[in-house]
Amino acid sequence: MPTSLVTGGAGFLGSHLCDYLIARGHRVICVDNLETGSLENIRHLRDGDNFRFLMVDITSHYEVDEPIDFVYHMASPASPIDYQRLPLHTLKVGAYGTHNTLGLAKKHRARFLLASTSEVYGDPLVHPQPESYWGNVNPIGPRGVYDEAKRYAEALTMAYRRQQGVDTCIARIFNTYGPRMRPNDGRAIPTFLRQALTDKPLTVFGDGSQTRSFCYVDDMMRGLVALAESDVHEPVNLGNPDEMSLLDLARTIIELTGSRSEIVFEALPEDDPQVRQPDITRARQLLGWEPEIELREGLQRTIDHYTRILGEPAAR
Fold it and tell me: Which residues does the UniProt record annotate as the domain NAD-dependent epimerase/dehydratase (predicted)?
């Protein structure tokens, strides 16, 4: 039975990854300090024989007293609300947290996967974004602490591979959604769902023409594990190449929820990317991976989850 360590394992992506790995027959060690994660996300796993939770702050040195085969480094504040509230912690997770976790992978001779982000591309001048594009990032803007933390983590990961011989890979994750995203997360889909399910106005920034590409969480888990179990070392984009505007997303959510909400427009935040669309050619060619769940189906699954936690009917 392989053993996988998942940092940030009580978070949105991390907890789904724990589920997916256990279903594949892995023993999972979940590491989290619960700064943005929640024990509720892993409550259903904690009594299982193949799951272990460690309350750890990875920005400090830490050890694990059992063999490890895979390390999935998922930990980081990831929403603008979180990384603007925790700017120094975000930078420390990208730097010290990645360094400490790479050291752990080296000690255990484990395959290491870095959960990077499409934000390394900044507000891109190339569309769609291939892995060969170096990005257009503002290092001193309000998003810089997250963008640069992830860019540094990528550089550190490659340095450990080149100098220390650690078996590494890098996933550049594009916008992902699904159950367990916090309603007050601040990102588009949970915000729109929370507003629509309570008949509050949906707040669209700018004129809503800026685009995103949304990947359902189950598809993302398949991609992450496929990359970790491959022999690929260079960065690979994981995301859904089907692009849509945020205004169209808001309208779709109002339709699917049967909401009476109106759409209101607010000023565009500083450095908000105008386009975001992955080129997933490498993922298709090297991993045989591409998303399977269409947006409307994924949104309906997510709506069903939110109606349970918000106590609202799914449609009216």
Answer: 5-239
| 146 is an active site residue | yes
The tokens of 129 are what?
């974004």
Q: Tokens 């590409």 appear where? A: 213
pLDDT tens-place values along the chain, 316 residues long: 999 999 999 999 999 999 999 999 999 999 999 999 999 999 999 988 999 999 999 999 999 999 999 999 999 999 989 999 999 999 999 999 999 999 999 999 999 999 999 999 998 999 999 999 999 999 999 999 999 999 999 999 999 999 999 999 999 999 999 999 998 888 999 999 999 999 999 999 999 999 999 999 999 999 999 999 999 999 999 999 999 999 999 999 999 999 999 999 988 887 778 889 999 999 999 999 999 999 999 999 999 998 887 764 443 3
* Cβ proximity of 15 and 42 under 8 Å: yes
164: CB partners within 8 A, 6+ apart:
102, 106
Which residue of the set 146, 160, 177, 216 is catalytic?
A: 146
Topology at the third CATH level for domain 3-176+215-238: Rossmann fold (3.40.50)
Where in the chain are all domains bearing CATH 3.40.50.720?
A: 3-176+215-238
Q: What is Dmax (Cα atoms) for the chain? A: 59
Residue 212 near residue 243 (C-beta atoms within 8 A): yes
CATH number given to 178-212+242-275+293-310 = 3.90.25.10
Contact of 276 with 125, CB cutoff 8 Å: no
Q: What order of strands is seen across the sheet that includes strand 51-55?
A: 51-55, 27-32, 3-7, 70-73, 111-117, 168-173, 236-238
Q: Which amino acid is at 171?
A: A
What are the start and end residues of each CATH 3.90.25.10 domain in the chain?
Answer: 178-212+242-275+293-310
29 strand-pairing partners: 5, 52
